[in-house]
Amino acid sequence: MSRPGGPAKRMAVVAIAGALLASGGLAQAAAHNAPGDFAAASLTSVLASKTEVPAAISAPSDATIAFSKIQVGSSTASTTAPTVKSEADAVTPVPTAAPAPTPAAPVDDPAAAKAFAATALAAHGWGADQMSCLTQLWERESSWLTSAENPSSGAYGIAQSLPANKMESVGSDWSTNAQTQITWGLTYIEGRYGTPCGAWGHSNAVGWY
């Protein structure tokens, strides 16, 4: 048969023992660390007051909080975008060469060529009678065509200069200008045969002049 109130009594004893131990520890701590005029109860009160939670701190109702003006901006937005040049812009364009002029075509006008030759005889000291011989001579040679060319020899022009570029001594337009060709031809006849009739006689004899 168990004793009445056993467990409850033991629990009460344990609680009392714990309280005594706690009070003994506080008293011992007070004896070693607190001044002599402080009792254990006073030390306990002080410790209790140190652990009090401070009251909430509130700012005065009339306090004003102001923030300095801060300009906030994006450096990326304020930066001007750099100008980007393409490789095509950096290339210096090459000037287009002017097209070469089209060479002038020879002017074939036998009547105009004969008229010019008739006026040029006097410059060589010849009379109008020499025109008949000259007309026959160059009719045989070129038909008084500025563009006449002998395919076998390469002789060229009204006077059938051989080589053709000998007429360049009179003018650079020797290949297209009848007057340049006639001027050269009359000078050649004077130097080689003396007169157009002398050149005509040689041509009749040998077939060329």
Keywords:
mainly alpha, 209 residues, rod-shaped, single chain
Write a structural description.
The chain has helices at 6-33, 40-50, 75-78, 87-90, 110-120, 130-142, 178-192, 196-206. The chain is mainly alpha-helical. α5 crosses α7 (178-192). The N and C termini lie far apart (178 Å). The chain is rod-shaped, with a radius of gyration of 68 Å.
Q: Strand content of the residues, in percent?
A: under 5%
Which shape, going by the Cα principal axes?
rod-shaped
- For the terminal residues, how far apart are their CA atoms? 178 Å
Largest sheet: none
Count of helix runs: 8
Q: Considering DSSP H and I runs of 4 or more, what fraction of the residues is helical?
A: 40-55%
Order of helices and strands: HHHHHHHH
Structural class, from helix and strand content? mainly alpha
Uncertain regions: pLDDT < 50 for 5+ in a row? 34-41
Rounded average pLDDT = 76
- What is the radius of gyration computed over CA atoms, rounded to a whole number of angstroms? 68 Å
How many β-strand stretches?
0
